[in-house]
Fold this sequence. Notes:
Layout: H1 7-60, H2 62-72, E1 90-91, H3 109-112, E2 122-124, E3 129-137, E4 152-154, E5 172-183, E6 189-199
Parallel strand pairs: 1-3
Antiparallel strand pairs: 2-3, 3-5, 4-5, 5-6
Amino acid sequence: MxxxxxxxxxxxxxxxGVVLLFCLIVLVILLAGGVAVVRSMHTSLTSAGNxxxxxxxxxxxxxxxxxxxxKFATGGTLATxxxxxxxxxxxASRLDTNAQGMPTVLFDDTAFATVGKTSNDIVDATAQVxxxxxIDRLCTASGTATSTxxxxxxxxPSGGTAGPVPPPPPPTATVYRLSxxxxxxxxTQVFLQSTFTKPD
Length: 200
């Protein structure tokens, strides 16, 4: 003959079932939390890695600045250039730019071929870095730079103003713009820009 369970025994069994259910729910929540933490760490590490790559590419871009300034130094290939020199990635007039002010030729290889040569790219195979640059003179047209057709800077002459002879006019210098696209590992790209002047 089967014994009937008392009311308290049946309640105890039900309570044990409820505790088991709560334990399973807590385990599922902990598992989901663990997965979220792992994914968050992975995303953070990826972001940190990308930032490191980008910072390195900014530093690598300095190589193009050094190379270009050498071309404009006395005796350099662009020291006296007043017309386009595609062999040196030089445009004697202002290039078209996008909304951020970067020349559009840096975004299109076909367009770039009209103003420069890919053989001028600075490539570091070991670091997996490639630097493409273009130089444009901030003038409306090629030819001799003028104050009305070019962006120019001027510096006031040094020294006092006393004396019967008025001071000479300040020297002018035309502004040039160097724009770079630096590509690196993991398809990382940065676009950099700098301006410099050259006395007329």
